[in-house]
Amino acid sequence: MSGSIRLNSDALLAILNLSKDATAIYTGADIVVQMANDAMISYWGKDRSIIGKPLLEAVPELAGQPFIGLLQDVWRTGKTYEARDTSAELKIDGKLTTFYFDFAYRALLNELGETYAILHTTTDVTESVQNRHALEEVRRAEVARTRALRESELNLRLVIQQAPVAIAISAGRNILLRLPIVTPLRCGGVARMKCYTYPFWKPCQS
Questions:
Q1: How many Å apart are CA 72 and CA 148, to the nearest integer?
Q2: CATH no. of 9-124
Q3: Where are the domains of the chain?
Q4: Lowest-confidence region among 41-50, 110-119, 130-139
Q5: What is the edge-to-edge ordering of all strands in the sheet holding 32-36?
Q6: Which residues fall within 8 angstroms of residue 80, CB to CB, at 6 or more apart?
Q7: Model-level pTM greater than 0.85?
Q8: Ramachandran region, residue 170 (left: φ > 0; alpha: ψ -120 to 50; beta: rest)
């Protein structure tokens, strides 16, 4: 048996639903949603009533976001567009929420090199992006704490070095002479530039 078989929309949808990626097909400069699998419909937070509508009408919260313009560029130029970790504001259960996606808009061309459809595939990477952002925030906070600690230690050293008298640091029940001091230390015979620990209650010996 030879010859090609034209699949109807139900058969095509069944094939799309086998894809692990959310998938949709658009046509025209208005980016009309011709087909979308269950995963894509779920990402949009819509139902199948959007099929046959321009994407901006079907998902109005996309207004002001770059996606419609990108799709129109793909339709006009016939050049595929791909992106990773891209944020999108979508309304789910009436609440506008930020998600992150890896996606591709692939131009499907006829024998004349003209775009006749756009194949949209996308993967939700929100969890991995949020985890990475959280880790980066922890690292930034740690760097900031380390920098602040170093600056604090430096400032303390400068204060002690510029003091006209010997300075002791109290740590719990002990008195700690830890930092270099430019003035000679006569108490207890402690030599300059060295540090010793004395119990808080033990007096210095002359």
A1: 50
A2: 3.30.450.20
A3: 9-124, 126-162, 164-206
A4: 130-139
A5: 32-36, 22-27, 115-124, 95-109, 81-92
A6: 74, 104, 105, 106, 107
A7: no
A8: beta
